[in-house]
Recover the amino acids of this structure.
């Protein structure tokens, strides 16, 4: 599977093309627009979310409510485009630290930094959320769930301790929180921190955790560096604007411990299946899924556009100057949750298709069931992982 997006922050619309989706997948407008609405919700959002009412329109690859197997075309209208089309826009010559303004101008030779700003903007993620919604719909056909939540903003950390986390409950609690944090006490502290950032004319970053449930073991591979699922997931997370760090499971905490306290011990399970006593690997070993919940954590820096001016240089004059404010969020971390879910859902949907093959759901369903039950003869490939008790994690 593959996809591309096109469009600018204040252009007429955003476009996405998703290729490789099998035929026969039921797909309704609400499957996409539910995720589009989630992306626009979150305490700390800027003024533009009061303007846009994002709706994803499918323009190809779906007929009579089902995918055809052809490329899926999606467009998202930018309602704010009409406001900007009527403005007399002065060329932007003062680059903002932390944004693509200066680096984009150096690379492409722009005389107006707005050309960098328009494409680098996180507005582009609206198209990726639409693509991810389609991928989530495919994963749901096989009982695979992808969800996420905020674990930290501005040093305020959620209490998510416990040996056997109920991830579905976390997802639900996060959606009930204005800052998408499943810990109510931490949610209150985070909201207070964001309110203070507004007063201070500053911005805040944070940490998002995305979890995929009910994955079969054996997605991904160890045989090539660029095909390791660890690498693909890290690249997907870091492709999201303002994401500067990623870990699988408690990776940085694991780095502080000896190996005997880190690795997930393998024990006999029920019905001759294998089981694990923990999931400190975050659901991946050797670049492949283990069958345990897949846990990806992403660190988001504070948005680079601040109401408080930052030191810069006016490229038109060569003289010291200060940044000019462009409308933005005070804290985008809550809104990053559905975006990160989307990019991870795409990678997992692609890996599932690589594993199972097939051009339609009717072909794929029996192959998935064979994989789930460990029936080698029913699968279209030779290398099938040993029967593994991942049902225990469902």
């Amino acid at each position: 599977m593959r996809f591309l997006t096109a469009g600018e922050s204040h252009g007429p619309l955003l476009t996405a093309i998703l290729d490789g989706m099998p035929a026969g997948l039921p797909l309704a407008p609400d499957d996409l627009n539910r995720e589009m609405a989630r992306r626009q919700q979150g305490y700390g959002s800027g003024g533009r979310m009061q303007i846009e009412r994002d709706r994803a329109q499918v323009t190809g690859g779906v007929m009579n409510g089902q995918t055809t197997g052809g490329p899926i075309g999606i467009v998202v209208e930018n309602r704010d485009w009409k406001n900007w089309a009527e403005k007399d826009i002065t060329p932007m010559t003062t680059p903002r630290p932390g944004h693509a303004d200066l680096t984009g101008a150096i690379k492409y030779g722009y005389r107006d930094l707005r050309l960098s700003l328009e494409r680098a903007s996180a507005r582009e993620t609206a198209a990726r959320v639409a693509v991810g919604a389609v991928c989530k719909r495919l994963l749901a056909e096989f009982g695979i769930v992808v969800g996420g939540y905020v674990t930290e903003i501005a040093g305020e950390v959620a209490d998510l301790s416990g040996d056997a986390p109920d991830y579905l409950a976390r997802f639900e609690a996060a959606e009930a929180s204005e800052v998408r944090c499943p810990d109510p006490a931490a949610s209150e502290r985070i909201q207070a921190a964001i309110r203070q950032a507004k007063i201070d004319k500053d911005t805040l970053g944070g940490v998002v955790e995305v979890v995929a449930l009910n994955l079969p073991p054996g997605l991904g591979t160890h045989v090539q560096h660029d095909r390791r699922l660890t690498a693909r997931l890290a690249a997907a997370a870091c492709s999201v604007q303002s994401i500067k760090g990623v870990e699988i499971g408690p990776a940085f905490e694991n780095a502080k411990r000896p190996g005997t306290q880190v690795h997930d011990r393998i024990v006999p399970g029920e019905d001759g299946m294998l089981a694990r006593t923990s999931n400190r690997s975050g659901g991946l070993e050797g670049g492949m899924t283990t069958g345990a919940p897949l846990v990806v954590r992403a660190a988001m820096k504070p948005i680079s556009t601040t109401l408080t001016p930052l030191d810069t240089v006016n490229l038109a004059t060569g003289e010291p100057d200060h940044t000019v404010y462009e409308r933005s969020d005070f804290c985008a971390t809550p809104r990053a949750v559905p975006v990160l879910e989307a990019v991870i859902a795409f990678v997992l949907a692609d890996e599932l298709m690589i594993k199972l093959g097939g051009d339609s759901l009717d072909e794929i369903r029996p192959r998935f069931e064979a994989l789930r039950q460990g029936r080698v003869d029913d699968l279209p490939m030779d290398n099938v992982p040993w029967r593994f008790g991942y049902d225990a994690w469902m």
Observations:
- The first helix runs from residue 29 to 39.
- The mean pLDDT is 90.
- The two ends are 26 Å apart (CA to CA).
